[in-house]
Amino acid sequence: MDQKCAIVTGAARGIGLATTDLFVEKGWRVAMVDRDAPALQDASAARDNVLAVTRDISNPQDVDAILRETDAWAGRVDALVNNAGVAEFGPIQDCDFEMWRRVMATNLDGTFLCTQAATEALKKSRGAVVNIASISGLRASTLRVAYGTSKAAVVHLTKQHAAELGEFGIRVNCVAPGPVKTKLSMAVHTPEIIAAYHDAIPLNRYGSERELAEVIVFLASEAASYVTGQVVSVDGGFETTGVGLPALRD
């Protein structure tokens, strides 16, 4: 019961999995949440001090269950990382309402629901929330009307929660990743898109999942005890130069 515990959503792969690993390295326990049961079981089976929680954060009943299962296992919640997200891209005219709702249900509704459900536990621990947005939520880009809007809403939701929950000692911050080198991004980004990103990023490269995790875990830790309501772009400087790349319009 003395060991700190984090809930990480979207933990089966990518940034969520890298964040899980870094928390565990630092001595935390982690409730790994994902709706992809096979991937979650594979990831959790290879790790110690983790709990696999197969739930869908867009479902209020599932979110309540996440907190119940985590409390039964760890007896506390010290950090919530709202990382789970849906990315569907395409021209505005192709974004029907069903697509819009799929993106919003996870990216925005899920972030709201998880934070609301975790608030009482976080009051007890005077813990932290770290939301994962995107540079697409800070600057408009092509093909991302639903995704970018959902992430912009997450940025503002972060500030709303920081303003209201600060009196309980709960810190709420947001990380906005830029281009990150993952299996998915490398599979779907053409050589032209990769070259365009490199040209537009001052550090001339994609970020790594571990680099994102380092910032997330810092914001969740006591090392960031006077940091709240902030949006940290972890993007190699990409947001400073704009995100509307011509190569993405093809």
Would you kindly provide a brief summary of this structure?
By secondary structure, the chain is of the alpha/beta class.
Bulk shape:
globular
Q: Percent of residues in beta strands?
A: 5-15%
Secondary-structure-based class equals: alpha/beta
Can you count the helices? 9
- Overall strand count: 7
Largest sheet strand order = 3-2-1-4-5-6-7
Major β-sheet, in short?
A: 7 strands, parallel
- The whole-angstrom Rg is 17 Å
Describe the fold and architecture.
This protein is an alpha/beta fold and 250 residues long. It is 47% helix and 14% strand. It has 9 helices and 7 strands; from the N terminus they run E-H-E-H-E-H-E-H-E-H-E-H-H-H-E-H. It has helices at 14-25, 37-45, 60-74, 97-125, 145-165, 183-188, 191-200, 209-220, 238-241, and strands spanning 5-9, 29-34, 50-54, 79-82, 128-132, 171-177, 231-234. Strand 4 (79-82), helix 4 (97-125) and strand 5 form a beta-alpha-beta unit. The relative contact order is 0.14.
